[in-house]
Design goal:
Structural class: alpha/beta
Largest sheet: 10 strands, mixed
């Protein structure tokens, strides 16, 4: 026992190791235990915080370390909600978010003012401030929808956008009411408030993407990129605080600003989600639980009365807002439940507002007691309301999100039964350590998000060449590819093969592994020498950009092949220009490569411009479903003058050419000169040559999508 004499076990715990150990045990155990009881783990963490907190067993104080981690967790939730958004869908549904934001602000505001003035007998200023508490909301249940994979559902997009709107209006209302109650509102006040808010939003939305784009192009170190993102989140939050807004608004706007630069399938996105869900967000939820004081139930009747009024009216108001939104936009009952669940929790903005109102002293009674804008009964009632609304929010969100996820799974399964889809098997031949990471990045962009398998990295060694270091170099390249894929939570299978030549190894593995796509690097050679023989069948056999090995692969295999020359990181590409030849829709692999382009648009968020003749654009445009907002369809007939594209190129563009084997239906004579054009006219841009699956003319088929 003498060994333990130097450790202080008195309560509350002061030893930082014991405190951290206790919280980690709770974070680990809560989901495991509560999943068996069908209780959302978010609620379990809140209850655990109440049990170990200063108002429970007093094991841990809600000190500065808990507050710091909890603040980071709350900002993380808002940042992730902005980062997870489908920006094309968000732009399409922005007016819906605005309508829901006004619903979920105005309905609680009206009920709150009436309740405060007529039921609780508060002054008009106190009643309006109480109504502001009703209107604000916290996305405490957002991790549930993210975990269930429906973060891009229309209901979630509407709820997240509406939360930002209602919280902004509620906090602006708080600023105005406090200023009016204390007599600090004048003409300059309004100009100063409007100017600071507009300036803050402009800096985050317009300048943050420029800074981040520059940083990601300059720095490729994974740790540095993560720290940079974290710093941007806190900088955006601080700017919002300077502007008189709640920091969560700045965190959300930062997520919106960095959305396109952090693709869903990228290693950086995986790290952000992992650290947030493992550490910061659980700390926030436990910290919320520590605020709950069960003794407020027994303290006085007024606190219970205020709490009951707040809980009933807030829940009713948020449900009415969700119901109005459902009827306005013809949403399903489950989508209404998700919107209600996400919008019904009150934590961050509510707590901030009630503390501000509580600390504003308007005067003193004859007995010397302070007259507060919001009295102690409202403060105690708010604590009880936080517990009640978090409980309602987690259960409602869990139920609605689960039903939506199950329905989506059933629809996907039934669709697959009608049109069976081959699993993605993408082969990545690696030979250059400078391009292997970008080849893996492109491959992850071209496959379904969060699909854990389907990537193969191959390094082939010519068995006729004696090189004692070849095996060591191969292992290093394959390890780099596997590590890059693992950072995105994707398993990549490493393949090392000795063969008579490299192209034969690639073709053999493609057949053995049932490969659907090949992603390989572009071979840079000297310009084509006049008189140099051209291998029949491939129009670009020996020009710069494609060497003999690649030519042999294209001749011996009929697999969708992407030949990639990266000039800058893929996540910093702002626009992909894809030049499509006439009659491309008549090739056998038309639908296959078009599906890859759709996945690229979805996973990267970059703008896609498909340039093709009008007759082909008719097949490229989607039929019978919503047109993606980040895909443009541009008429293009200048195949005889491809260098003219140089005038349309911008910084951070990637140029694609959909190619064709010679004498196929979509072949154009200019294709033989494309490698030379890439060398002389487009050398400063990333480029990709796409060779689709092709069949004989008698086997060609039209495919409408």
């Amino acid at each position: 026992m003498l060994l333990l004499a130097h450790i202080d076990f008195s309560l509350p715990l002061e030893d930082p190791i014991l405190k951290f150990l206790l919280i980690l045990v709770i974070i680990l155990a809560a989901p495991l235990l509560l999943n068996k009881l069908k209780i959302p783990y978010l609620l379990g963490l809140i209850i655990a915080g109440a049990v170990i907190g200063p108002h429970g067993l007093n094991l841990v104080l809600r000190d500065s370390s808990i507050i710091l981690s909890g603040t980071a967790g709350l900002l993380y939730i808002m940042f992730l909600s902005g980062l997870d958004m489908d920006m094309s869908d968000f732009r399409h549904n922005s007016w819906r978010s605005l309508v829901f934001g006004l619903y979920t602000f105005c309905v609680p505001l009206l009920l709150g003012i009436l309740a405060g003035y007529y039921i609780l007998g508060f002054s008009i200023y106190s009643s309006i401030l109480l109504a502001g508490l009703f209107a604000s909301q916290t996305l405490i249940a957002y991790p549930i929808v993210s975990k269930l994979g429906i973060a891009r559902d229309k209901a979630v997009t509407i709820a997240v956008g509406g939360t930002v709107i209602t919280d902004t209006l509620a906090l602006l209302l708080l600023t105005v009411i406090v200023g009016m109650a204390t007599g600090n509102v004048d003409n300059l006040f309004w100009w100063r408030l409007a100017g600071s808010v507009v300036l803050c939003i402009a800096i985050i939305v317009l300048i943050f993407p420029i800074i981040a784009h520059w940083f990601f192009k300059l720095v490729s170190d994974n740790i540095s990129q993560y720290i940079f993102v974290l710093a941007m989140v806190f900088l955006g939050s601080f700017l919002a605080q300077l502007a008189g807004l709640e920091p969560i608004i700045g965190a959300f706007l930062t997520g919106i600003a960095l959305n396109r630069l952090i693709p869903r399938t990228s290693p950086l996105m995986n790290r952000i989600e992992f650290v947030g869900n493992a550490i910061f967000i659980p700390f926030f939820l436990i910290g919320v639980g520590m605020l709950i004081d069960y003794r407020a139930f027994f303290r006085d009747w007024e606190s219970l009365e205020v709490a009951a009024v707040m809980i009933v009216l807030i829940t009713a108001a948020k449900f009415i807002a969700a119901w109005l939104t459902q009827k306005s936009f013809r949403l399903s009952p489950d989508q209404r439940t998700v919107i209600f669940g996400l919008s019904s929790a009150h934590v961050a903005a509510t707590l901030a507002a009630v503390m501000v109102g509580y600390n504003v002293i308007l005067g003193h009674t004859p007995d010397g007691e302070p007259i507060r804008l919001l009295n102690e009964s409202v403060l105690n009632g708010t604590i009880l309301m936080i517990l009640a609304t978090c409980t309602v929010s987690t259960f409602a969100t869990q139920r609605g999100a689960h039903n939506i996820a199950v329905r989506q799974a059933h629809l996907t399964a039934s669709s697959d039964e009608k049109t069976p889809k081959q699993e993605d098997h993408i082969l990545i031949p690696v030979a250059n350590d400078q391009t292997v990471e970008e080849l893996v990045a492109l491959s992850t962009m071209l496959k379904r998000a969060k699909e854990p398998n389907g990537l193969y990295a191959l390094h082939a060694i010519d068995n006729q060449v004696e090189d004692p270091n070849a095996d060591k170099r191969a292992r290093k390249l394959l390890d780099t590819a596997a590590t890059t894929a693992a950072a995105s939570d994707i398993y990549l299978q490493e393949l090392l093969r000795y063969d008579v030549n490299i192209s034969n190894a690639i073709v053999s593995v493609s057949r053995e592994r049932n490969i659907t796509d090949i992603v390989m690097g572009m071979h840079r050679t000297i310009p084509t020498v006049p008189g140099l023989p051209v291998i029949p069948g491939i129009p670009v056999a020996s020009g710069p950009g494609i060497g003999k090995m690649t030519t042999d692969v294209l001749m011996q295999s009929n697999i969708t092949t992407f030949i990639y020359h990266p000039v800058q990181p893929l996540n910093t590409i702002k626009r992909h220009l894809i030049v499509v030849p006439e009659k491309a829709e008549q090739e056998a692999g038309f639908q296959l490569w078009l599906r890859r382009i759709s996945l690229l648009a979805e996973n990267s968020g970059a703008r896609i411009s498909l340039l093709a003749p009008e007759s082909t654009l008719a097949y490229l445009r989607p039929r019978g479903r919503k047109r993606p907002a980040n895909i443009d369809y541009v008429p293009f007939t200048q195949w005889d003058d491809l260098p003219s594209l140089e005038h349309d190129m911008r910084d951070d563009d990637c140029l694609w050419f959909v190619m064709s084997r010679r004498d196929r239906v979509s072949y154009h004579p200019s294709m033989s000169r494309i490698p030379a054009y890439l060398e002389h006219h487009f050398a400063d841009y990333s480029s990709i040559l796409l060779y689709p699956v092709q069949a004989g003319d008698t086997e060609s088929r039209y495919i409408r999508v």
